[in-house]
Every structure is written in structure tokens, then in C-alpha cells.
Amino acid sequence: MAFDPTLAEFRFGTGRSPRLEAPASVDAMLSALTRADSMVRVFPVPPFSSIAEDARRHQSLQRAIRRNEGDVESQKEEFKKLRSRFSARKWRYAARQLARGLETEDGFRERLVAFWADHFTVVSKSFVTRPAVSMFIDEAIRPHVAGRFADLLRAATLHPMMLFYLDQTRSVGPNSPFAKGKPNRGLNENLAREVLELHSLGVDGAYGQDDVRQLAELFAGLGGNVPDGFKYFERRGEPGPEYVLGRAFGRRKPKIEDVHEVLDTLATHPDTAAHVARKLAVHFFSDTPDPDLVAALETRFLETGGDLTSVYAALLEHPTAFSRPMRKVRRPVEFIVAGLRALGMRGKTLTNLTPKRFRQLVTTPAQLMGQTWQTPTGPDGWPEDTGHWITPQGLAARIDWAMGVQGASELELSDPRDFVDVALGSLASERTLFAAGAAETRGDGIGLVLSSPEFQRR
């Protein structure tokens, strides 16, 4: 099929915009990935280390209050303000992340960031790390989406947020020097299992429970804390070698290089190629993707040793890339960002909202549609199944948002007859064109376009 700029914006981007040009070609989409990530500069999220000072103070206050040391009442007041600061950061960074989708001319990058952030799901399990999911995405995911899968796997696996989320910081090699003095501390297999099952080889990959156990022992030295970030503790590591997929890794003295080696090996395994290929095809095309497309992605992955830009080229150049109909449904956050983008909202407008107003406009409606911000129910991320997002409650919430957004003071509504072309282009059905032109009010017409079946899909 010939390149279709409207489908490029729907299937591979963040939606159409009245202010920003659609990509002109596949080459333009791929070329954009090779350039600097401009949205990170415009809407920056600080690094994980930026919360270190407040994290230390949080721990100190907790300890003092628990022990009833010093002026407890003033400490409680400071503690309350500190927690409010962590919460405010979470919503401030959330707004910056989503503002990128409103302003970008490289929508494919934003979609890839969201895809890989879901592939390498982390969830905050502490008040202190509430803003740190956004930090994880900017530090571990964004810099590597157009690079080598091996670098992406390593960065995501070793980031403090992944270690905290999967309880790796509590893991100790059973025969390590550290374990001899801490009989109550043991090995935790969570990270090893998810790296094999979700992040690399896939649930049907060629590994067994013994591989999980051996990989967990190889990972045992990985740890750290919020104030200091990632650390590798040789005293907690399990003396080797460990055998993963029949290959020996490490020697008697554990080293971080052993972890790097096993991750690089998993990153280029044929099962990893098959797993990643299918996930990309399902995410961008269909819950039951064309086997030929999956095979093309898998082959390109293997040929290039996991060069992701080459894999994306195979995705965009496949004969089905710009075919219709659209079979996937925009997830709630994607739907809201696409709606605000079509309405012409600027990224700075979104980032200037108060946390309360941001929640009212974006995250609370998304939650009612079925997607709580940065809180999927498990390490496998948000469901890809299209049917999961098409429920009576979810559809009702989408329609409520579409019909109610007309009241947002941050927006200037255009004529629905113009808006239907901006929002849908050549995808607009005759029924939606008629509804937009026949609506009694400007707001109703725009609401009907946003709630139309074709706007829900990608």
C-alpha cells in the first residue's frame, strides 16, 4: 500500500494537528528517529538523582517521628510538605510527558517510547518514587528506542526503578558472604523471571525454572536505594559460575560485567527476536497480526543483531503498513492526547495547568476509561487486546470526555465542519461528516467527532 500521511498519524503517531505537518514519507519518519530528541529539551524531566536529597530527608523524618525524637510536631509538618512535593512532581512530570505528544512532529518516537515503557513496565511502590516512573522512562527508555535492543534491555533492567519494582534490592545470593550474616535474607527471582518471560525470550521461550533460578543468582548483587541510586554489591552476589540457557556466566567472584554479558546474550537470542517482533506487530496492527509481517520483523531483528531502527524500517515498509481498516483501539491516554492535539492545545498550556486541573482534564477521565496513570496491574503492562478497551463503562467515559471537553477554558473550539477534517482527514466517514455539519452547537459537533468510531481507532 502507498504511504498515507493520515494513517501515519493515527497508526504510528499521536494524532492529527491543526498546527503541525503530517510526516511526508516513511523515510521522513525513520530519519526523524536519527535526530536529537527535541521534545526532551522542550519538556524536560529531571534525572532520578534529583530526588536524592528529598528522599534522604524523608527517611530521616520518618525515623525521627517513629522514635519520637526532637520536635515531632514540626517534623510531621515538614514531612507532610515533603510528601506534597513528591506528589506535585509526579503530576508535573506527567504533564511534560504528555505535552510532548501535543507538540511533536515526530509522533512515531512518542509512540515507540510508550510501547517500550509498557514492555519494560515499572510501577512506583513508594511515595518517594511516585515521580520516578517518568524519570525511568526518560533515562532508561527514550535514549535507546532507536538504538540496539541490547542497550535498551540493559538500561531498563539495571535502572533503580526496575530493581525496586521487582524487589531485586532485597535479593541475596544464598552462598554469598552477605548471606552468612543475614540468615533471613534470601534469593528473589522476580527480576530474573520477568527478564526472561516478558522482556526478552517471551513466555514460550526456550528456558525453564532452573534458568530462572540461575539468572536470579547471577542478578543477586544488583541493588541500591532511592538516595544513592543503582549499586552493585559483590558481597551479595552468588559465587559462580551460573548456567543460563546452557551457557556458563561468571566465576567465583561476582561482577557486574557478568550481568552485562548475560543480558547481551538474551538480547540477541532468536526467541527474543520472535517475541519482540510479535509484540510490535500486535501493538501497531492487530491482535492477530499478519504472519508475514511478524516474520519480516523477526528476520530483520536477527539480521541486524537487534538494531531497532532497522526493525522499525521493516515495520513501516511492509505492504500492510498503511492498509485499512484500522483494527486497534486507542488506549485512554492515547485517545485523550490525540483529542487535545486535534483541538490545537499547546504543550505549554498543558504543563501550566495546576495538578488538580491536569487530573480533571486528563488522568481522572483516563482512569474512568480504564487506564490509571502509570499503574498497570502487573509487570506485563497494559493489555493489548482490543476488546479490553471496548467496554460499556469505558465507552461511556470516552463519550463523556468527548462531549464535555468543549467546556475546557484552555481551548478555543473551531467550526465542527473544519474540525472533522483536522481530526480525521480522509478517515472521516459520511456519517461523521454529516453529524459534524448538523450538530446544534459547536461543542456538540466537536464532541461527536471525538466520540466517532474512527477517532477511537489507530
From TrEMBL:
Entry keyword set: Coiled coil
Coiled coil: 58-85
Protein name in UniProt: Uncharacterized protein (DUF1800 family)
InterPro entries cross-referenced by the UniProt entry: DUF1800 (IPR014917)
Organism field: Aliiruegeria haliotis
Statement: the UniProt record of this protein carries the keyword Coiled coil: yes
